[in-house]
Amino acid sequence: MLNRQNLLIVAIAMLGALLGLYAGSYLGQPRLTAPGATLGPGERLTDLQLPDIGGHPHRLSEWDGKLVLVNFWATWCAPCREEMPLLDRARQELSPRGLEVVGVAIDDAEAVDAFLKASPVKYPILVGGDNDTLYRFGDGGDVLPYSVLVAPDGKVLAQRAGSFSEHGLSRWLEPHLNR
Known about the structure:
Blueprint: H1 2-27, E1 49-51, E2 57-59, E3 67-73, H2 78-94, E4 99-105, H3 109-118, E5 125-127, H4 131-136, E6 146-150, E7 156-161, H5 166-173
Parallel strand pairs: 3-4, 4-5
Antiparallel strand pairs: 1-2, 3-6, 6-7
């Protein structure tokens, strides 16, 4: 009888472990769009105006005619900081094929300036977005990093909550790049 009880306990423990692994892998996947988002694929991008580090205002429409990856990030967000060199390399490699990357910092200007001095990127960084900005761009869960891929005509192609791997970013961009 003791062997049956031990076997039952081991079976329940294994089932619990498998369910935990499944739930962890399912819940850990980045969402491609946010539930209840105000902006979705096929819709025209909101022409957000935000200042750069120097305080000069910029509108996202400045990059009309290009494939634009708008990446929302913050200095306090470790996955955001880790992703920035990948986005910088992608922009450098893929700009001849029409790609532009624009970072939107959900942070204050001093923190962004200090961070960029220590870890510079070559793509434009705008400052001052907030949770309302994230929501308007489709991030209903306030997840950072959050990226929106915008077609040259200003319409949203895709949205992604969570950071990219190099392979994941390539797969996300490739179907939309000019050849």
